[in-house]
Amino acid sequence: MSNLPLLELRGVGKSYGAHRVLSGFDLRVSPGEIVSLIGPSGSGKTTALRCMNFLERYDEGEVWIDGQLLGYSGTGRAAADCDSEARVDEVRHPVSMVFQQFNLWPHMTVRQNVMAPLVLGKKMAKDEARTLADLALGRVGLSAKADAYPARLSGGQQQRVGIARALAVKPRLMLLDEPTSALDPELVEEVLQVIRSLADDGMTMVMVTHEMSFAAQISSQVVFMEAGRIVETGAPEPLFNAPETERLQQFLKPWFNRSLTPRAQVIP
Ligand SMILES: Nc1ncnc2c1ncn2[C@@H]1O[C@H](COP(=O)(O)OP(=O)(O)OP(=O)(O)O)[C@@H](O)[C@H]1O
Ligand SMILES: [Mg+2]
User: Fold this and answer.
1) Which residue owns the Cα nearest ligand 1 atom 3?
2) Where do the H-state alpha helices sit in 155-244?
3) The pLDDT value given to residue 266
Protein backbone atom coordinates (compact mmCIF):
# COMPACT_ATOMS: atom_id res chain seq x y z
CA MET A 1 0.00 0.00 0.00
CA SER A 2 1.42 3.37 -1.03
CA ASN A 3 1.56 6.05 1.64
CA LEU A 4 0.73 8.86 -0.75
CA PRO A 5 -2.91 9.72 -0.11
CA LEU A 6 -5.35 9.16 -2.94
CA LEU A 7 -7.68 11.60 -1.21
CA GLU A 8 -6.83 14.27 1.31
CA LEU A 9 -9.09 16.86 2.94
CA ARG A 10 -7.52 19.71 4.87
CA GLY A 11 -9.68 21.98 6.99
CA VAL A 12 -12.67 21.56 4.70
CA GLY A 13 -15.73 23.65 5.53
CA LYS A 14 -19.11 24.29 3.99
CA SER A 15 -22.04 26.59 4.76
CA TYR A 16 -25.54 26.81 3.42
CA GLY A 17 -26.20 30.52 3.85
CA ALA A 18 -25.59 31.27 7.53
CA HIS A 19 -25.79 27.57 8.45
CA ARG A 20 -22.31 26.07 8.89
CA VAL A 21 -22.73 22.34 8.15
CA LEU A 22 -19.07 21.30 7.88
CA SER A 23 -16.03 22.70 9.70
CA GLY A 24 -12.34 21.87 9.88
CA PHE A 25 -12.75 18.45 8.26
CA ASP A 26 -9.40 16.65 7.86
CA LEU A 27 -8.97 13.22 6.29
CA ARG A 28 -6.22 11.24 4.58
CA VAL A 29 -7.15 8.18 2.56
CA SER A 30 -4.33 6.00 1.21
CA PRO A 31 -4.85 3.58 -1.68
CA GLY A 32 -6.62 0.42 -0.51
CA GLU A 33 -8.11 2.06 2.59
CA ILE A 34 -11.75 1.81 3.59
CA VAL A 35 -13.04 4.75 5.59
CA SER A 36 -16.47 4.73 7.23
CA LEU A 37 -18.23 7.95 8.16
CA ILE A 38 -20.68 7.51 11.01
CA GLY A 39 -22.74 9.94 13.05
CA PRO A 40 -26.25 11.13 13.84
CA SER A 41 -28.66 12.42 11.21
CA GLY A 42 -27.77 15.93 10.08
CA SER A 43 -24.16 15.69 11.29
CA GLY A 44 -22.82 16.44 7.81
CA LYS A 45 -21.79 12.98 6.57
CA THR A 46 -23.41 13.34 3.15
CA THR A 47 -22.13 16.89 2.81
CA ALA A 48 -18.58 15.76 3.61
CA LEU A 49 -18.84 12.92 1.09
CA ARG A 50 -20.24 15.17 -1.64
CA CYS A 51 -17.47 17.71 -1.07
CA MET A 52 -14.98 14.91 -1.81
CA ASN A 53 -15.98 14.95 -5.50
CA PHE A 54 -17.26 18.54 -5.66
CA LEU A 55 -20.91 17.56 -5.99
CA GLU A 56 -21.04 20.16 -3.22
CA ARG A 57 -18.80 23.19 -3.46
CA TYR A 58 -16.75 23.42 -0.27
CA ASP A 59 -16.00 26.98 0.78
CA GLU A 60 -13.06 26.48 3.13
CA GLY A 61 -9.94 24.37 3.04
CA GLU A 62 -8.65 21.98 0.38
CA VAL A 63 -9.63 18.68 -1.18
CA TRP A 64 -6.79 16.88 -2.96
CA ILE A 65 -7.37 13.92 -5.27
CA ASP A 66 -4.25 12.04 -6.26
CA GLY A 67 -2.12 15.14 -5.71
CA GLN A 68 -4.41 17.61 -7.51
CA LEU A 69 -6.48 20.33 -5.84
CA LEU A 70 -10.18 19.79 -6.54
CA GLY A 71 -12.50 22.63 -7.47
CA TYR A 72 -10.20 25.64 -7.20
CA SER A 73 -6.85 26.73 -8.60
CA GLY A 74 -6.11 29.63 -6.27
CA THR A 75 -6.74 30.51 -2.66
CA GLY A 76 -10.24 32.03 -3.07
CA ARG A 77 -13.18 29.83 -2.07
CA ALA A 78 -16.12 31.85 -3.41
CA ALA A 79 -18.37 30.54 -6.19
CA ALA A 80 -16.57 32.87 -8.60
CA ASP A 81 -13.23 31.20 -7.75
CA CYS A 82 -14.31 27.74 -8.93
CA ASP A 83 -12.46 25.94 -11.67
CA SER A 84 -14.25 25.22 -14.94
CA GLU A 85 -16.48 22.14 -15.03
CA ALA A 86 -14.03 20.51 -17.43
CA ARG A 87 -11.16 21.00 -14.99
CA VAL A 88 -13.25 19.73 -12.05
CA ASP A 89 -14.16 16.64 -14.11
CA GLU A 90 -10.50 16.08 -14.94
CA VAL A 91 -9.39 16.19 -11.29
CA ARG A 92 -12.22 13.98 -10.02
CA HIS A 93 -11.79 11.49 -12.82
CA PRO A 94 -10.58 8.71 -10.44
CA VAL A 95 -13.69 9.03 -8.25
CA SER A 96 -17.17 7.57 -8.61
CA MET A 97 -20.20 7.62 -6.36
CA VAL A 98 -22.91 5.20 -5.21
CA PHE A 99 -26.12 6.89 -4.01
CA GLN A 100 -28.51 5.89 -1.26
CA GLN A 101 -31.54 5.96 -3.58
CA PHE A 102 -29.77 4.17 -6.49
CA ASN A 103 -30.79 6.98 -8.94
CA LEU A 104 -31.35 4.58 -11.85
CA TRP A 105 -33.16 5.78 -14.98
CA PRO A 106 -36.51 3.93 -15.11
CA HIS A 107 -36.80 4.14 -18.92
CA MET A 108 -33.40 2.54 -19.52
CA THR A 109 -32.45 -1.11 -19.19
CA VAL A 110 -29.95 -2.17 -16.57
CA ARG A 111 -27.16 -2.27 -19.19
CA GLN A 112 -28.10 1.16 -20.55
CA ASN A 113 -28.03 2.55 -17.00
CA VAL A 114 -24.51 1.25 -16.49
CA MET A 115 -23.41 2.47 -19.94
CA ALA A 116 -24.85 5.97 -19.45
CA PRO A 117 -21.95 7.59 -17.54
CA LEU A 118 -19.50 6.09 -20.02
CA VAL A 119 -21.35 7.20 -23.16
CA LEU A 120 -22.81 10.49 -21.92
CA GLY A 121 -20.17 11.49 -19.37
CA LYS A 122 -16.96 10.07 -20.78
CA LYS A 123 -18.03 10.19 -24.49
CA MET A 124 -17.00 6.58 -24.97
CA ALA A 125 -18.01 4.63 -28.10
CA LYS A 126 -21.10 2.49 -27.46
CA ASP A 127 -19.42 -0.85 -28.22
CA GLU A 128 -16.64 -0.19 -25.74
CA ALA A 129 -19.10 1.09 -23.13
CA ARG A 130 -21.22 -2.02 -23.56
CA THR A 131 -18.22 -4.26 -22.94
CA LEU A 132 -17.31 -2.38 -19.76
CA ALA A 133 -20.94 -2.34 -18.60
CA ASP A 134 -21.24 -6.10 -19.06
CA LEU A 135 -18.00 -6.66 -17.15
CA ALA A 136 -19.24 -4.50 -14.28
CA LEU A 137 -22.61 -6.26 -14.22
CA GLY A 138 -20.79 -9.60 -14.06
CA ARG A 139 -18.76 -8.26 -11.17
CA VAL A 140 -21.92 -7.63 -9.11
CA GLY A 141 -23.55 -10.91 -10.21
CA LEU A 142 -26.21 -9.37 -12.44
CA SER A 143 -25.26 -10.43 -15.98
CA ALA A 144 -28.65 -12.13 -16.33
CA LYS A 145 -30.50 -8.86 -15.69
CA ALA A 146 -28.72 -6.72 -18.30
CA ASP A 147 -31.82 -6.33 -20.49
CA ALA A 148 -34.32 -5.88 -17.64
CA TYR A 149 -35.74 -2.53 -16.58
CA PRO A 150 -35.01 -1.34 -13.01
CA ALA A 151 -38.65 -1.62 -11.94
CA ARG A 152 -38.41 -5.41 -12.41
CA LEU A 153 -35.50 -5.66 -9.95
CA SER A 154 -35.51 -5.93 -6.17
CA GLY A 155 -34.06 -3.01 -4.21
CA GLY A 156 -30.91 -5.02 -3.52
CA GLN A 157 -30.48 -5.77 -7.22
CA GLN A 158 -31.10 -2.11 -8.10
CA GLN A 159 -28.37 -1.04 -5.70
CA ARG A 160 -26.02 -3.63 -7.18
CA VAL A 161 -26.72 -1.98 -10.57
CA GLY A 162 -25.87 1.34 -8.89
CA ILE A 163 -22.57 -0.18 -7.80
CA ALA A 164 -21.94 -1.62 -11.28
CA ARG A 165 -22.55 1.81 -12.79
CA ALA A 166 -19.99 3.32 -10.39
CA LEU A 167 -17.53 0.48 -11.14
CA ALA A 168 -17.82 0.63 -14.94
CA VAL A 169 -15.88 3.89 -15.09
CA LYS A 170 -12.93 2.04 -13.49
CA PRO A 171 -12.62 4.33 -10.48
CA ARG A 172 -9.69 4.31 -8.07
CA LEU A 173 -11.86 5.68 -5.28
CA MET A 174 -15.52 4.98 -4.62
CA LEU A 175 -17.75 7.16 -2.44
CA LEU A 176 -20.82 5.38 -1.06
CA ASP A 177 -23.61 7.24 0.74
CA GLU A 178 -25.59 4.83 2.93
CA PRO A 179 -25.70 2.24 0.15
CA THR A 180 -28.01 -0.10 2.09
CA SER A 181 -30.25 2.22 4.08
CA ALA A 182 -33.07 2.30 1.48
CA LEU A 183 -33.28 -1.51 1.49
CA ASP A 184 -35.47 -3.99 3.32
CA PRO A 185 -33.37 -5.74 5.97
CA GLU A 186 -33.22 -9.06 4.11
CA LEU A 187 -31.78 -7.34 1.01
CA VAL A 188 -28.97 -5.59 2.84
CA GLU A 189 -26.60 -8.56 2.97
CA GLU A 190 -26.35 -9.10 -0.81
CA VAL A 191 -25.22 -5.47 -1.22
CA LEU A 192 -22.78 -5.64 1.70
CA GLN A 193 -21.38 -8.80 0.14
CA VAL A 194 -20.61 -6.93 -3.10
CA ILE A 195 -18.98 -4.07 -1.18
CA ARG A 196 -16.96 -6.60 0.84
CA SER A 197 -15.72 -8.22 -2.38
CA LEU A 198 -14.64 -4.82 -3.75
CA ALA A 199 -12.74 -4.26 -0.50
CA ASP A 200 -11.10 -7.67 -0.89
CA ASP A 201 -9.98 -6.59 -4.37
CA GLY A 202 -8.29 -3.54 -2.87
CA MET A 203 -10.76 -0.85 -3.94
CA THR A 204 -10.34 2.38 -1.97
CA MET A 205 -13.66 3.48 -0.49
CA VAL A 206 -15.19 6.16 1.68
CA MET A 207 -18.60 5.07 2.89
CA VAL A 208 -21.32 6.70 4.96
CA THR A 209 -23.05 3.94 6.86
CA HIS A 210 -25.31 3.08 9.77
CA GLU A 211 -24.26 -0.58 9.54
CA MET A 212 -21.96 -0.53 12.57
CA SER A 213 -20.94 -4.21 12.49
CA PHE A 214 -20.09 -3.90 8.83
CA ALA A 215 -18.10 -0.71 9.44
CA ALA A 216 -16.27 -2.45 12.29
CA GLN A 217 -15.38 -5.42 10.08
CA ILE A 218 -14.41 -3.68 6.87
CA SER A 219 -12.91 -0.28 7.76
CA SER A 220 -9.30 0.72 8.15
CA GLN A 221 -10.46 4.04 9.62
CA VAL A 222 -13.73 5.19 11.16
CA VAL A 223 -14.73 8.84 11.43
CA PHE A 224 -17.45 9.86 13.90
CA MET A 225 -19.05 13.22 13.14
CA GLU A 226 -21.42 15.50 14.93
CA ALA A 227 -22.65 18.98 14.02
CA GLY A 228 -20.34 19.19 11.02
CA ARG A 229 -17.18 18.30 12.91
CA ILE A 230 -15.09 15.20 13.46
CA VAL A 231 -15.54 14.22 17.10
CA GLU A 232 -13.46 11.05 17.11
CA THR A 233 -11.54 9.09 14.52
CA GLY A 234 -9.38 6.00 14.48
CA ALA A 235 -9.09 2.31 13.74
CA PRO A 236 -12.37 0.43 14.25
CA GLU A 237 -11.31 -1.77 17.13
CA PRO A 238 -10.45 0.95 19.68
CA LEU A 239 -13.12 3.28 18.36
CA PHE A 240 -15.99 0.81 18.72
CA ASN A 241 -14.74 -1.09 21.75
CA ALA A 242 -13.40 1.82 23.79
CA PRO A 243 -14.80 5.12 22.52
CA GLU A 244 -12.98 8.03 24.14
CA THR A 245 -15.68 10.67 23.96
CA GLU A 246 -18.92 10.58 25.86
CA ARG A 247 -20.73 11.59 22.68
CA LEU A 248 -19.53 8.52 20.77
CA GLN A 249 -20.31 6.26 23.74
CA GLN A 250 -23.83 7.68 23.75
CA PHE A 251 -24.16 7.32 19.95
CA LEU A 252 -23.08 3.66 20.04
CA LYS A 253 -25.22 2.69 23.04
CA PRO A 254 -28.43 1.81 21.14
CA TRP A 255 -26.41 -0.33 18.78
CA PHE A 256 -24.74 -2.26 21.61
CA ASN A 257 -28.09 -2.64 23.33
CA ARG A 258 -29.68 -3.97 20.13
CA SER A 259 -26.81 -6.22 19.20
CA LEU A 260 -27.13 -9.88 20.15
CA THR A 261 -23.37 -10.21 19.90
CA PRO A 262 -21.56 -9.83 23.21
CA ARG A 263 -19.62 -6.58 23.20
CA ALA A 264 -16.23 -8.26 23.45
CA GLN A 265 -16.91 -10.22 20.27
CA VAL A 266 -18.05 -7.39 18.03
CA ILE A 267 -14.66 -6.97 16.40
CA PRO A 268 -13.60 -10.18 14.69
N1 LIG B 1 -28.99 21.73 0.09
C2 LIG B 1 -29.04 22.09 1.39
N3 LIG B 1 -29.45 23.32 1.76
C4 LIG B 1 -29.48 23.70 3.05
N5 LIG B 1 -29.10 22.89 4.08
C6 LIG B 1 -28.69 21.66 3.77
C7 LIG B 1 -28.64 21.18 2.43
N8 LIG B 1 -28.17 19.91 2.45
C9 LIG B 1 -27.95 19.61 3.75
N10 LIG B 1 -28.26 20.65 4.53
C11 LIG B 1 -28.12 20.69 6.00
O12 LIG B 1 -26.78 20.36 6.32
C13 LIG B 1 -26.72 19.58 7.51
C14 LIG B 1 -25.96 18.31 7.24
O15 LIG B 1 -26.70 17.53 6.31
P16 LIG B 1 -26.19 16.13 5.75
O17 LIG B 1 -27.19 15.71 4.73
O18 LIG B 1 -24.79 16.28 5.32
O19 LIG B 1 -26.27 15.23 7.06
P20 LIG B 1 -26.11 13.64 7.21
O21 LIG B 1 -25.14 13.43 8.32
O22 LIG B 1 -25.81 13.04 5.89
O23 LIG B 1 -27.57 13.22 7.72
P24 LIG B 1 -28.40 11.84 7.43
O25 LIG B 1 -27.81 10.78 8.33
O26 LIG B 1 -29.80 12.20 7.83
O27 LIG B 1 -28.28 11.52 5.97
C28 LIG B 1 -28.16 19.37 7.95
O29 LIG B 1 -28.46 20.31 8.95
C30 LIG B 1 -28.96 19.64 6.71
O31 LIG B 1 -30.24 20.14 7.03
MG1 LIG C 1 -26.81 11.70 4.66
Assistant:
1) 16
2) 155-168, 185-200, 212-218, 236-241
3) 53
Q: How far apart are CA 172 and CA 30, in angstroms?
A: 11
> In sequence order, which ranges of the chain are alpha helices (DSSP H)?
45-51, 85-91, 110-116, 126-139, 155-168, 185-200, 212-218, 236-241, 246-258
**Burial (CB count within 10 angstroms: exposed 0-12, middle 13-18, buried 19+), residue 92:** buried
Cα distance between residue 54 and residue 92, in whole Å: 8
Instruction: Name the residue at shortest CA distance from atom 7 of ligand 1.
Output: 16
Amino acid occupying residue 111: R
* Nearest of 17, 13, 19, 18 to residue 42 by alpha carbon: 19
| pLDDT, average across residues 248-252 | 95
What's the pLDDT score for residue 137? 98
Domains (range + CATH), the chain: 1-94+176-268 (3.40.50.300), 104-171 (no CATH)
Edge-to-edge order in the sheet of strand 229-234: 95-98, 173-177, 204-208, 34-38, 221-226, 229-234
The answer, as to whether pTM is greater than 0.90, is: yes
Nearest residue (CA) to ligand 1, atom 18: 44
SS3 content of the chain, % helix, strand, coil (to 5): 40, 25, 35
Give ligand 1 pocket residues (Cβ under 6 A).
16, 19, 21, 39, 41-47
Closest to 35 (Cα-Cα) out of 200, 204, 240 = 204
Pocket test for ligand 1, best of 46, 52, 55, 207 (most atoms within 8 A of CB): 46
Find the 100 Cα to ligand 2 centroid distance in Å.
8
